[in-house]
Design brief:
This is Lipoprotein. By secondary structure, the chain is an alpha+beta fold. 17% of the residues lie in helices and 42% in strands. The chain has one domain: Clam (outer membrane lipoprotein receptor (LolB), chain A), CATH 2.50.20. A 15-stranded mixed sheet has the order 1-8-9-10-11-12-13-14-2-3-4-5-6-7-15, covered by helices on one side.
């Protein structure tokens, strides 16, 4: 496959993985937990597993699948808590083909090969705004954490007297796991966590649209390793399903570290042409 074709698939597919939203198929063994205190205690255990490191960096092996098209790339992941998440896609192992950067204020998508970029605040990207995926929520997905929509992982603090209802976490027991659920309007957020370790094994977000069809995002975590005195997943499998397409992204993290010597912001050269969100979406739907 030509380099431009690789970039076209990967650079368009990656940012849209974080746009929408998944739901569990609950087994017949599911039993509701009545005591809200049990929900509070378990959610607190899950939250206690959060990373204490401020930086996470890693070499990454990417696999991107859009319909019948499959590609494999290498790259880098660089994250600084509460500041930036950066994914760099490398072609042939040494040429940076694309870059995806999330900050608190904007999303930046760069196509290095075709000299194009998109830089937009979250409120201008409909699918991010509608699904409650601002920077804090996206950070929680990358860092394997619970979050509250439009807030983030720091908002996951439950009082002992919280009552169930909209905007509150609930739990359901399912075999060896617990399903943590949060509903807000058209959105349904769910996490699957081990009862024994309280480690999150899956995050699911569902955007319900009875007119245009549902959109869902499944984010699976596996192959945990000790990092910064906490467990962190080295393998991430992300599946975005829209009424028209399914996109799969696999990320395998190698050589986890906490490198601090890198610039936290990408400067865009005046040689790059700015494109719109609509243009990116049109090109993606044409894949």
């Amino acid at each position: 496959m030509k380099l431009k074709s690789i970039v076209r698939i990967a650079v368009l597919a990656l940012p849209l993985m974080f746009s929408s939203c998944g739901i569990f198929k609950k087994s017949k063994e599911v039993k509701p937990i009545i005591e809200q205190r049990q929900t509070t205690d378990f959610v607190s255990q899950v939250r206690d597993n959060q990373q204490t490191n401020k930086f996470i960096t890693s070499k990454v092996k990417f696999s991107v699948e859009v319909g019948p098209q499959k590609i494999t790339l290498t790259g880098n992941l660089k994250m600084r808590r509460d500041d930036v998440i950066r994914l760099q896609l490398m072609a042939f192992g040494f040429v940076e083909a694309g870059r995806l950067e999330f900050t608190k204020d904007y999303v930046l998508i760069m196509d290095r090969i075709n000299k194009q970029y998109l830089k937009a605040p979250y409120r201008q990207v409909d699918f991010l705004r509608n699904s409650g995926l601002n920077f804090s929520a996206i950070q929680a997905l990358f860092w394997n954490e619970l979050f509250k929509p439009n807030q983030g992982s720091e908002a996951v603090v439950l009082a002992k007297n919280n009552k169930e209802g909209e905007g509150k976490f609930t739990t359901i027991e399912s075999g060896d796991d617990m399903i943590i659920n949060l509903e807000e309007g058209k959105m349904d957020y769910s996490w699957l966590a081990s009862k024994n370790t309280a480690l999150i094994r899956m995050a699911n977000i569902l955007y319900k649209d009875r007119f245009n069809g549902n959109t869902q995002l499944n984010w699976d975590y596996s192959e945990y390793d000790v990092f910064g005195r906490k467990m962190f997943p080295k393998k991430h499998l992300i599946t975005l399903t829209t009424p028209d397409k399914e996109v799969k992204l696999g990320m395998t993290l190698n050589y986890l570290g906490n490198d601090t010597e890198w610039d936290a912001r990408t400067e865009v050269s005046n040689k790059y042409r700015e494109v719109t969100v609509d243009e990116i979406l049109r090109r993606f739907m044409a894949l």
